[in-house]
Amino acid sequence: MRHERNFAEGREENGLPAERERPVPVLEVRNLKVSYSASGPQILKGIDFAVDGDDFCAVIGPSGAGKSTLIRCVNRLVEASDGDIILFGQDVRKLNGGELRRMRRRIGMIFQEFNLVNRMSVMDNVLSGRLGYTGAFRSLFKVFPREDIERALELLERVGLQDHVDKRADELSGGQRQRVGIARALMQKPEILLLDEPTSALDPKISRDVMRLIKELAREFRVPVLCNIHDVQLALETCNRIIGLQDGYKKFDGPAEGMRKQDLDEIYAMEVL
Amino acid sequence: MVAAVGLQGAPYLSYVERKRRRRVNNWVIAACIAVVLGWCIWDTVMVDTDWARMGGALGIIGTLERFFWIDWGLVPSLIVPALETMMMATLGTLLGCVFSLPVAWFGAYNVTPNRYIFYPLGRFLMVLSRSIHEIIWALLFVGAVGLGALPGILAVAMRSVGFISKITAEAIENIDPKPVEAIRAVGGNQFQVMYYGILPQILPVVIGTIIFEWDINIRRSAIMGLVGAGGLGLVFFRQMAMFNYGGVTLVVLAVLVLIAIGEVISHYARKAVI
Amino acid sequence: MTAISADGHMPAPVRRWSRYKHPRSTIRFAVLIAVLAFLSWSIAFLNIDLYRIIGAFPRLWEILATRYFPPDIDYVLDDSFLHSVLRTIEMSLLGGFFGVVLAIPLAWMAARNITISRRIAYPLGRFAIMGSRSIHETIWTILFVTVLGFGMLAGTLALTVFCVGFAGKLFADELEAIDMGPVEALRSVGASNLQVFQYAVLPQIRVAFTGIAIYTWDVAFRAATVVGFFGGGGMGWYLKRTTQQLENTRVAAILLTIIVLVLLAELASGWLRHRIAKMR
Questions:
Q1: Whether residue B180 sits in one domain with residue B245
Q2: Can you give the pTM of this predicted structure?
Q3: Residue numbers in A near C3 (CB within 8 A)
Q4: A77 touches chain B (CB under 8 A)
Q5: Reported ipTM
Q6: Of the candidates C133, C128, C92, which has an alpha carbon nearest to the alpha carbon of residue C108?
Q7: Is residue B9 part of a domain?
């Protein structure tokens, strides 16, 4: 399995002793701090957590708690100011340009606003998930390898968009666009999926369908998921692990079943006030 | 009752007062404009014009009349120059687009390679290109590369750079950053980010601008012959030198026909793109 | 429906997809090939040496550096030249003013949504604006010089016609984009065409029109610097004389003056337009 191979590589690089009994987490975050400017307020004030190979982990919390920042730090769309982010055994913060690109292509990301290129076709949007593996010549003329095209068609069928392959992305409805986003992320054959509020631009019914689809696919491809979600009910339904953030601090970390009313009250204390 | 009138009265008066002031203001502005214009007319038209040589109304009508005897016999010899003009406009626009690429890249604040050196340079090139009239560009290039169509093409290209690159740079500055973020997140390199994230977003605007500029460039290349760069302008110049005013009118009509053709083509091209 | 197995291996049925979609892509390719053919035919027909394009800029630089340098600044500080600069500005003001004044009724006729009559006024207004736009300002200058003789009258009239075309197009576009609600409201209370224009249209476009008028002056000034080249008066005439007598350092000085003045005009008009846009 891919993950285990990667952990093994990571272990060798870090010179860690091989532990057989406890699996090394896919992602480990230690003492993460983020502030957007040197003098500005800290968004994250020292977060520690780990994501294991079979986790579907939700980050919940009131708006402004730093959920989105946390997710974006993992693939460095936002630069952290302090702490370690160990992904597949490598410290993401220490990667240079090329290494970061190679790391990013192993990370699938699904966005709140879908982030599709509206004027491109659905097919091209899905294929753009392979750009990290595509050379300059192929990407200039948009000639993707046959396997990529076949995989894109498979995935589009899997998310139920087989009839919209050649439509332009802006002709689709919100739910359909997010399915294109899912297909694009899975095109990368990701080893971890980051979801940044994947449902908050969708209505409740479609949100549930989309989350169910993501969960199904994540289980099928055995991809761990780190997800940030506004809707607590939806998080408890879909995820097996919950991390609660409040004002830059971690307030809760544990299995979804273990979450009690008072934990929620504590996380959302700011909003109650 | 009295109180009510008082309450309504104060704002009413101030409204009248404001209106009066605005009216006075407008009159002052109008008077200034009138004085300036009057002086301009006196200084330029009255003093400078050689009224005696114009020869009165009859003389003017006499000259105008000669323009109306259109020299239709000239039509066959206009076809090649018209084609040349069209080609000059097209090649000039194409070359202008090529030159615009780096200028737009430098002059767009969010993608410029360096905000302190390249950004001002790009902006400066845009202004420079637009502020020099195409006749002057043509004069400079005739000096540099000699007579022929090439200086005309270069002049048209240089004049187009400013507008194309300005609109392109503005389009780049106004793109939606979210798809760009997505391409970066899948591990795309700088080129892929530009090609897949930025280009599709700005393409309709850029192509619309290029078509618009091509349309303008047809009328620009129609005069390039006046300073030695071939095309319809050269025929115009020759007919003028021979005092064959009927031929001059025909050349003007030919320019109108070319513009009309260009208008039709650009209408369809625009529809195909957007 | 077949699922992709976890290790990424793709099972049997091969799905077909091609970027090439028959009618659309074929037409697109045909058009592309036609355009490329026209371009290469143009290059061959006009006998253009591609190396000379690349060589043109070093050559231009060399000529500027050797023959045109140093610019004869004293020449442009001469009284008669400065007077010609003043007259160029006057010409652009006159041309811009009369052009804009004439352009407003023409644009009113040529705006499809509020034109007086679609049968007669609309094509007439369109034709007048298109006609004055299509002919380059230098051709107008030459025509007016032929009829009226050398001097600023011809230059001013040429600039006026140019501004009618330039401002008329922009005005008409602006008019076609107005909110038709007030127009319909006024028409429904029985207002005349002129009243509709004054009370429903004018308030919507006043600021935009002022901005366009200033921009028109800016462009007219740019054109005014060269109408003299063809006998229309102003500083262009000095440019013509020095070019013909090959007084290159003087040409350089005049060109520099033109560039500086045009930049100043652009700055001034940009500043004014900015202020007016804020008044909206």
A1: yes
A2: 0.83
A3: 158, 220
A4: yes
A5: 0.85
A6: C128
A7: no
